[in-house]
Amino acid sequence: MMIRGGRSLVSSPPVFSNDANKLLVCTSNTVSVFSTATGLQISSLEGHTALVTSVLVVPPSSPAAKVLCYCWTASLDGTIRYWDFSVPELMKTIDIRVPIFSMVIPSFLDVPAEDKGKHRNLFAYVSTIDTKETQDKSKASRRQIRKCNLSKSCLVGRLILGETKKPEVLTVSPSGKFFGICNKCKLHIWKVPDQGSEHAAVRKITLHHTKKITVITFHPTQRIIASGDVTGRILTWRGFGNRAFSGDNGVDNQKLINVQEDKPGVRDIDDADLCSTWHWHSAEVNVLSFSLDGAYLYSGGKEGVLVVWQIDTGKKKFLPRIGSPLLYFIDSPDPTLSSISCADNQIHLLKMPSMGILKTISGIKAPCCYPEMYEGLGNGIAFDQTAGLVALRTENYCIQFYSLFDDRGISEVQVCERNHQPGDDVTVIVTAVALSVDGSLMSTSEVKLAEEGIGGLVCLKFWQAGSQNKEFSLSTIVYEPHRDASISAVTFHPSGNMVVSSSFGGDFKVWRCNNDSLQSDQMRQTFSWTCHAVGSYKKKPMTAAAFSADGSVLAVAAETLITLWNPYKNVLLAVLGETLTPIVNLSFIGKSDNLVAASCGSNPQLSVWSMSKLSLSWSYKLRIEAVASAVDLSSFAALVLLPESSNETTFKGRDGVILLYNATDPVPTAVWSVRKAKGGALGFLQVNPSFVEEISIDGKTPEVLLAYMNGDHEYVVFDPFCKDAKEVNMSQKVSHSALEVKGLGGQYGYVSIYGELPEFDKKRPETPCVPSFPSERPWETIFSGSSHSLPPLTKLCSSFLESLLEKRTVTVE
């Protein structure tokens, strides 16, 4: 049992069903079907093994056929599939054995009335890559436009309509008579031939522009094509192809059309009557679409504003403040419903023509891009263990709460009030986010970047959740909590009424809230947090912090040392041994008396410390990206970054592994290899009673679940203690012997700190017989070899002392 999610909803344009009640969305190697009434997912089409690039709904042949739910999908796995998405059920698979980047089926839209009901071949046009080896190495990987006979399940001979340097998206006209692509500064337009012959010639024209063209769209009734370029201009060509696509090739009117004055705005000898330009967008145009009646043109781009142009007059109106660059605008068969896809992985359902947002399908937000100096402050991810949620920081200074079980966004919390617009420079960075155990409280830290070396501000904020949908309200804000030093970590006490924040400035602070306010629902908005204690250790930077399971001990990393404190009395209890590099992560392992620490730098280390003995239990020399501990178990998981040299051999391109440990055993109980581990996160989740039936395995409910989120915020939730959990998000479990080959297994703390020991036979018994040494001159060989192979002290002392002391015979007088 595995729950996968976090996929992109905007990798390809979505499409509405014929009755406009469903929206089909390409999500990685599946197609998710959403209800337009609720915005929730109702089913999915699963079968492709690579990214789905196109989904096309079969239009109804009559008004009564609108209830039919059939669609075609194309994928990079080289297959085209035919589905009944009302069931859902796979009906047909066509394997053309080349990756498909885009697909259109003009035959859907151009069906003569006299041909309705007749069986005719169905043709699709696909944008593919030719991977066949050729003598000319420059043509070994050619991007081609090909024709495919869907009725015969094959490509049409060697017919190649065009070649480009990179895969291009195909756009078909609503009439089904034309399709085209934008290729740098050119527009290539093909006229779809009659359906009678699959080898009929396909005529093409090319229109030219001075700037790179980014998107094109066709008018539904007239011979008009519109395009957007990288500068924000919108160009419309009227009467394109009047010469090349007419029946008589326009011979009689050749001279009239070639007169430059008769073709205003048209470059050179382009086959068009008129070209006009509109300009409002300040950056490249990503969205262009004509309305169903052709009276309006919708455009959008990086500004996050949808512009509606009146074709005849050029007048415009706007839907502003969408908050993210626009990618696709799709009309539905229902003229009162449309959708718009945004770069922040959201799809908005719009009520037309007022353009009000009816519903929003929220996907997980993409990782933030921050200045290099702030990349090491953490990934800004926190797990709500009880509710199965994850909190993520976003580019627009928000914290998104995302349901790992439902695979949808729950809410967003505006951390700092900023008039953020897409494309603006980053001015504020959310460096840390922490949640209480029950998920009712949240704490965030942020840094306002200095401008030209002037200014800069560090803030610590405390939040409390409302009654529904994780709507948090700000309760306390602390400016410069550690003077001008940045905050390295924030963590909650198990009870939730205490928070510790550590800083690189050399101190940590314990914050407490008013317990009476927490217990009264009427005073939830008035409680506040105050500083309870301040601690430091030899002015060392405090780099990490963690509370024990019962909250009686606070562990704070003082760079390379671990200091243990009584959080209530602010008394230093003990200091644990020193590591070679600064510690960046601390976590108590459930209810055991063990503490796990991860350090980074040139000598990274994963170490487990015994609180009862105040000493190191075991350690590995591993580069750790994340650590998670189970609350009620003595187990923890570590996300390890693999050396680059091992990615392409043993681990087949995967850059990380998840190691599951028992606190007292240095040998991992389970190992999984993963992709995109850099920037990833781990978290144990408690099983919610409402999901018991859904996540039960063989009738048994798992004690806990482990969530892994990769650097692209794709995730998988699984039972780490189930023997059948052999893969994690498109990767297979790696045997322990594979880790040992790369130096990741079978190493203890001594080896990770002081270097490798000489190789020895790992198959021999764990307690081999101690070899005996010669008794005549034992001092020459007694200390040779590795330290772990020295004889016991009982044999060592007798042999050594006898070699130094000369035996004398005692004479009794």
Structure description:
- It is found in: Nucleus, Nucleolus.
- WD repeats lie at residues 278-319, 480-511.
- Its main location: nucleus.
- This is Formin BNI1-like.
- By secondary structure, the chain is mainly β.
- Helices cover 5% and strands 42% of the residues.
- It has a four-stranded antiparallel sheet, with no helix packed on it. The chain has a four-stranded antiparallel sheet with strand order 2-3-4-5, with no helix packed on it. Strands 6-7-8-9 form a four-stranded antiparallel sheet, with no helix packed on it.
- Residues 248-260, 517-525, 726-754 and 762-776 have low confidence and may be disordered.
Main beta sheet strand tally, sense and closure: 4 strands, antiparallel
Shape: elongated
User: Kindly state the mean pLDDT as a whole number?
Assistant: 81
Q: Could you tell me the number of beta strands?
A: 57
Ranges with pLDDT <50 over ≥5 residues? 248-260, 517-525, 726-754, 762-776
Put simply, the count of helices is: 7
